[in-house]
Amino acid sequence: MLIWTLSVHAESVVVTVSSLDQPPKLDGQLGDWLIEPQIIRLHKAHPGVSVALSELTMWAGHFDDSIYFAFRWADAHPDRQHKPYIWSDEKERYTVGPQREDRLAIQFQIEGEYDVNWLSGNSFKADMWHWKSSRSAPIGLAHDKMTIVGREKVIRSFKAEGVDGEPVYIRRISDSGDKLYSHKRYVLKESKQMPKYLLNANASGSIADVKAAQRWRDGAWTVELTRKLNTHHDDDVLFQFADDIPGGIAVFNRSGDSNHVISNNLLFRLER
After folding, report:
1. What's the rounded Cα separation, in Å, for the pair 137 and 146?
2. C-alpha–C-alpha distance, residues 37 and 70, integer Å
3. Tens digits of residue pLDDT in 150-192
4. 14 Cβ contact list (under 8 Å, min separation 6)
5. Residue 67 gets which letter from DSSP?
């Protein structure tokens, strides 16, 4: 279960979403980003985190009816496999391999009082764009999801302990539309290693709102994301000039859900 926590509370960092003279091409390269980036400091989500990453560089802008983000962070090796099946001659069946994909997630408050620390006790609903190097990147998307955090139990929620010792209930659900991927099962041996996930290149609906492009080169990932400012979907955040939007960022390096680094609370502010 993915849980964002952070033991250090700091003042929210303002992220300026600049007005762009032209839209950047979605190609995983930064040459057409003609605005100054911001450095986003990252912290371990909890003391047991092994991901060693203290910052990422972020560009944020809007043009016409769309918003654009670019992220660059150090990663010595790209990890593009996630839980593949490995054939065991001893067991005469496939077992799940140890490989885990690289990931980046960014969240935006939809309602409530967002906190990057999901265990803070605050109740909120947030839009999550979850870029996955294995399960979404190959089809040019980030997985568009919603996170619901609160004190009251809801169906299919995960129960956690808040910082005050009281229960917190967390539910993460995909946006409406087609599934981005499905699970594959194998009875007989086909090859030494087989994929667990089959991607849906034709996914549509709110789940497929966030387009993505990426490139790993020279020890770093570059990921670009874009979406309409207003998708007219109830499960998406509405970007508008009148409101600062609270949010946060998490990065995973070949790691499971709880093993990640995270930003402080952010405030996304659209510049006219």
Report:
1. 19
2. 9
3. 999 988 999 999 999 999 999 999 999 999 999 999 999 999 9
4. 244, 266, 267, 269
5. E
